[in-house]
């Protein structure tokens, strides 16, 4: 989504500035045209030469340096950008932007641009939680700035808590979402999506789960929202930011997911079951932590409710989409699942193939439909796969006159 997009990266003075260098490299690899602005404080942590080498563009750090007399540099940059991202955004730079202060190259450019502005804060946890900082963040959100929120973790100052800069991959994910095409084809439709893993408890400290990251389901939720749908995302435990404008229902177990889906199933127009739901759970759950004992520990398992099959049996007007994550006999197993569970479409992927399956940012899928269509796609980002899935759902609706 970032191919040939003009991206202005603004680096302010925090120790997390080193991550901005890694981000620059990844953005260039994504095909973006990257230009960098640095504050004087940022140059205390990392040199302009680093960003010049990575972006292959000059670095801007002074409002009064005008290399081209025909252009005013900060206005030219402001007009050039398709999107602006501030990484890291310190408490100081956010205070300036919230107050409309323009006293360096970064702030003058940001106040002059009409491009979308993303803010990725990074600072000490106590600074992050300070009322003044929280107030400034709220003001910037009201102005339309989009926040890529800080993470919890170990901070450079020695504290542990919120304030850790989002990883470059997360920032790129947020930027990609901005450029997902909007066509409103699902306007007036309610799309329900399940995502992530489930957790089946053994005792207060142990549980069974799987490797699902939820990335595919979250990409679908974002894409469906951009296509005009009302979106409900029923999510197991994941490490992903909630999609903007999407109703997120958090669950832990397969039973909780079953109850959440069934509760809103009747009002759904499309249901996409991309979650990796546990097929089995422990028959006995211990109230207290089970202590280590001699010998083996055998855990008896029982089946969970087959959510997708239940939805297929109860289906009336809904378009029902399932996923088949297989390691062998991909087409055979997918087609069997399509028929047995009364699905309209099934998205199949071979989880043993590099670039497909859990955790990664890409997927390789084949889509099979109830009306005997088959669509194979090469390795794509999960955001691109999400768009393809929604396009095939819409095509299925139109072919079968289900509008």
Give a quick precis of the structure.
With 403 residues, the chain is an alpha/beta fold. It is 33% helix and 24% strand. The chain folds into 2 domains: 6-178, Rossmann fold, CATH 3.40.50; 190-399, Rossmann fold (3-Layer(aba) Sandwich).
Strands side by side in the biggest sheet: 13-12-9-14-17-18-20-21
Q: What would CATH call the class of the largest domain?
A: Alpha Beta
Number of helices: 13
CATH superfamily of the largest domain: CoaB-like
Task: Look at the helices and sheets and give the structural class.
Answer: alpha/beta
Helix % is: 25-40%
Termini, distance in Å? 29 Å
Key descriptive features of the protein:
single chain; 403 residues; alpha/beta; Rossmann fold; 2 domains; eight-stranded mixed β-sheet; six-stranded parallel β-sheet; 22 strands; globular
